[in-house]
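Figure 6 in text form: structure in, sequence out.
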């Protein structure tokens, strides 16, 4: 385990595994922590990775923010510099996919490749959030007692998170087990961070400037979707159309965490872009 010092003095938890060129992983949330242990337990290239907790979250130093994408991009730059990486391959999941894309747009020369997992595209929230909310409530509504427990649980509590995360998996039988593993260890949801960054996304994401910025991005991008994600995958079409060097892989039997429900399919997809990038060196 290592401590990365951000340029404003906040310390970020980080961990490196493996010996080859590492994937730098950006976890979801916002306001959560690195939950990639299952992913990095898979064979290379996924086992060669740098994991880190975003500021004020998980094992990183508690602080008062600021909770902005610009600040989190600067923190990711501090991670890159701490580990002495010239260019890095970024893998971001969910909110972390948006963060990784934002970093690549800000620092294209420092990103060898971008792996964009279970993101929500570059359009406005209206492209996906109403359908996501409806799908979420419909799936929870299959078990009315569970829906009632979720509504009664305090925001940010472990109980509410476990119920919410269980909806993310297509395999309903194993969903509670997967959610329990996500919550172990439990560090608590940073609700202030979550609220601020979600509000920023709703306000600023989907603006016209994003589309030409993505069209100018020369970085190779792999988009990985779980076909059974309750966030409509059509939301990502806007990003796919804008990127000049993109490949998209959809894993049919997987939900929002595709490496959990189709680990071999996920590993093959990631290995394919890394082989491509190495040929281009």
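Output sequence:
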């Amino acid at each position: 385990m290592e401590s990365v010092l951000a340029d404003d003095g906040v310390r970020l938890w980080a961990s490196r595994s493996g010996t080859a060129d590492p994937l730098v992983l950006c976890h979801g949330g916002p306001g959560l922590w690195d939950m990639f242990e299952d992913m990095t337990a898979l064979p290379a290239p996924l086992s060669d990775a740098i994991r880190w907790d975003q500021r004020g979250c998980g094992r990183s130093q508690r602080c008062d923010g600021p909770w902005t994408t610009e600040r989190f991009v600067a923190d990711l730059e501090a991670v890159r510099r701490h580990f002495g990486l010239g260019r890095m391959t970024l893998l971001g999941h969910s909110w972390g996919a948006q963060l990784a894309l934002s970093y690549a747009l800000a620092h294209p020369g420092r990103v060898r490749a971008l792996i964009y997992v279970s993101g929500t595209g570059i359009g406005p929230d209206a492209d996906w959030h109403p359908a996501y909310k409806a799908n979420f409530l419909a799936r929870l509504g299959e078990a009315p007692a569970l829906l009632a427990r979720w509504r009664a649980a305090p925001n940010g509590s472990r109980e509410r998170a476990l119920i919410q995360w269980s909806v993310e998996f297509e395999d309903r039988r194993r969903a509670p087990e997967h959610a329990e593993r996500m919550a172990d260890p439990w560090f608590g949801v940073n609700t202030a961070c979550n609220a601020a960054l979600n509000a920023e996304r709703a306000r600023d994401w989907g603006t016209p400037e994003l589309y030409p910025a993505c069209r100018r991005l020369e970085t190779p991008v792999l988009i990985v979707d779980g076909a059974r994600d309750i966030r409509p995958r059509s939301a990502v079409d806007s990003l796919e159309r804008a990127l000049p060097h993109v490949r998209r892989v959809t894993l049919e039997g997987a939900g929002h965490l595709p490496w959990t429900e189709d680990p071999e399919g996920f590993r093959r997809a990631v290995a394919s872009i890394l082989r491509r990038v190495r040929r281009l060196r």
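Caption detail: Residues 130 and 146 are 21 Å apart (CA to CA).
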